[in-house]
Write a structure and sequence with these properties.
Number of strands: 0
Order of helices and strands: HHHHHHHHHHH
CATH topology of the largest domain: Four Helix Bundle (Hemerythrin (Met), subunit A)
Largest sheet: none
Structural class: mainly alpha
Distance between the termini: 68 Å
Number of domains: 3
CATH class of the largest domain: Mainly Alpha
CATH superfamily of the largest domain: NADH-ubiquinone/plastoquinone oxidoreductase chain 6, subunit NuoJ
Radius of gyration: 32 Å
Mean pLDDT: 78
CATH architecture of the largest domain: Up-down Bundle
Number of helices: 11
Shape: elongated
Length: 256
């Protein structure tokens, strides 16, 4: 109910500002009303869970095109009185006919909306509706990266496991600086203080504790020259982990 009220209120603002754009005598005021109209359309996009379109509406139309309109207004001599001019090629009946077609289209849309079955009730809570900007961004960057690297054949793809997608040379291997930049953004967004080296310690402990990899294998995977370094620094075992290991070993001996 609240969404329907907001929709009709924004629609009324859009129509009202559109009428003011073509009816006001002051050209600067007309441009300002146009800006308000674009902003109301952007708010309507947000209401319809189309945040990406709302951003484009503000950046391109309200931000870019209106600036061009203002330049045109600045170049026009507004103090000069209008000249009497008549265009014999003007066919007013064509304009009225097109206006009638637009009104007929609106009437058909309203009529179909009144008899059409309602859509899903939880459309606003779908994954695409809540994260459409993120998903669109990932698709755009993914398509850009694939097109930049070429075909998807195995021999055409580079042997990169992690590639730059946001800074530096896109499509190239991640550097230490790009990794640290990503970590800093994650720390700022989540509030969790961590470093990439802490993740290395966590992975080493998981290999040994959860995956049951022998200590020499874990040490080789970490490219340590001394197995004692792996055991003393990288393995973070709690007393509960030691008790669990002893219990599992005791159960295994009992089965034998």
């Amino acid at each position: 109910m609240n969404q329907a009220i907001a929709f009709y209120v924004l629609s009324a603002f859009i129509l009202g500002f559109a009428v003011l754009v073509v009816s006001t005598r002051n050209t600067v005021h007309a441009v300002l009303y146009l800006v308000l109209n674009f902003l109301a359309v952007a708010a309507l996009y947000v209401l319809l869970t189309a945040q990406f379109l709302a951003v484009i509406q503000v950046l391109v139309y309200a931000g870019g095109i209106v600036v061009l309109y203002l330049f045109v207004v600045m170049l026009v001599n507004l103090k000069r009185p209008p000249e009497d001019h008549s265009a014999p090629q003007r066919h007013s009946w064509i304009g009225f006919g097109l206006s009638g077609l637009v009104l007929l289209e609106l009437a058909v849309i309203i009529g179909y909306g009144s008899i059409a079955p309602p859509g899903p009730a939880n459309a606003q809570n779908t994954d695409l509706a809540m994260y459409n900007v993120e998903k669109i961004g990932m698709l755009l960057y993914t398509d850009y990266l694939i097109d930049d690297l070429g075909a998807l054949e195995a021999d055409a793809l580079p042997d990169f496991l992690f590639v730059n997608l946001w800074e530096g040379e896109r499509g190239r291997p991640m550097t230490y600086a790009s990794v640290m930049s990503l970590v800093k953004r994650l720390v700022k967004r989540t509030g969790i203080q961590f470093t990439p080296h802490m993740l290395r310690h966590s992975r080493a402990t998981s290999w040994f504790k959860d995956d049951k990899l022998p200590l020499p294998v874990v040490s080789r995977l970490l490219t340590h020259t001394c197995i004692q370094t792996t055991n003393d620094i990288y393995l973070h075992l709690t007393p509960q982990d030691l008790k669990k290991a002893l219990s599992e070993r005791r159960e295994g001996n009992d089965e034998l």
